[in-house]
Amino acid sequence: MYAELGFLGLARRVFLEVNGPDLVAQNTMLSACAKSGEVDFARSLFDRMPERDCVTWSAMISGYAQCGESREALSLFHCMQMEGVKVNEATMVSVLSACSHLGALDQGRWTHGYIERNNICMSVTLGSALIDMYAKCGDMGKAMEVFLGMREWNVYTWSAVMGGLAMNGAGKECLELFSRMKEYGVQPNEVTFVSVLRGCSVVGLVEEGRKHFDSIKQVYGLEPKLEHYGCMVDLYGRAGRLDDAFEFIKNMPMKPHAGAWGALLSACKIYGNMKLGELASRNLVELEAKNDGAYVLLSNIYADSRDWDRVTNVRELMKNKGVKKIPACSVMEVGGEVHEFFVGDKSHPRYGEIEVMLDEIARRLKLSGYVANTNPVLFDIDEEEKEDALVRHSEKMAIAFGLISLGEGVPIRIVKNLRVCGDCHEVTKMISKVFNREIIVRDRNRFHHFKGGDCSCKDYW
């Protein structure tokens, strides 16, 4: 009862008063801690338990997956199999969630095969998790295959596949699926409309997006949430209608949230609107004082205008407020093993080969006419050092590793914790053409499918 009501401290007090708690009591306490994010305490309970069943293992794996410790979740699942514990639907949903977070497609495929080999019932919940995993790993073909093969769909299944299509740049297909969903008589919910508005955004259908936004309340009787307002700002911003985006923010019936100001700031960066960018940045920082992305985007707007005094001011402001830029990290999976790359990091066991490939990439790109965009890099170092700093960005190291470790024609899939920088975006487009390799990058904002020198985001992210 205490756990369900969110009183974890009281739940722990009662648990500690139980003399020799049985497996059910232990599982209840472990699950409560895991759900509340206290995974270290949950793990200490788990390790001390003389007996564990499927519920125990599933609760611990779920706790890791929910708090973003996906590698630990997958590692524990491996241990669960080694001990021969029978898995259930809840376990597999958590494992798929961990694969989604890491972008670990190979492990996700293996998990899908495991579900089929062990005849685990493909419920609507499990099917939706499987669709979400494939979508977040950038394989929409497989996500659609799972969707079409399901016997039953609910609004969450439709929303998952539509969200995946929008996320991967297939806005037209997303909207077509929305029409089919309505034909099937399925009532959309708030999550559905986030997917629909994102679908409109990626294909630039501003007026259609506005109609869908208005229908949330007028047709379906739902109250638009902050996420829907943020999507509309992104829709106007992507279309270059920055004044409309700003007016929309001003007319919101509630206080604008960080998502809305962040979408406007990103649009200002793309379209070089310094004045509106400053305003968006100020409002964003008021809401999230430690939002490093707000400072970095504003700094880059100034850098693109070569206004180095203001770049200096932004960086001094970050320093004075104790705001530190989160280190960029790119993750990729090769042969079922997850590899992490940080900017300038030389600790990877194959770093020597990676460096050779980086040099080869630089050589081929220069022959193709590439000139590095060094504006956003620290301006107090010379041009050659700036170019070297750009070459060592985490996604470029990951791409180099992909080129030396994956077979010819195998797509390179990368998950990055930050927004892709302009130079890396341009370079990746060129690499996809020069090396004839499909590269799929999931950054903090969206997916980028690079192929033949083009990107699915149409250079807006």
Automatic annotation (TrEMBL):
PROSITE patterns xref list: PPR
Keyword Repeat: yes
InterPro entries the record matches: DYW_dom (IPR032867), E2_motif (IPR046849), E_motif (IPR046848), PPR_At4g14850-like_plant (IPR046960), PPR_rpt (IPR002885), TPR-like_helical_dom_sf (IPR011990)
Keyword Repeat carried by entry: yes
Every DYW domain range: 369-461
Keywords: Repeat
Residue ranges of coiled coil: none
Domain of life: Eukaryota
GO biological process: RNA modification
Protein name: DYW domain-containing protein
PPR repeat locations: 22-52, 53-87, 154-188
GO molecular function: RNA binding; zinc ion binding
Lineage: Eukaryota, Viridiplantae, Streptophyta, Embryophyta, Tracheophyta
Entry-linked NCBIfam families: PPR
A Pfam short name: Eplus_motif
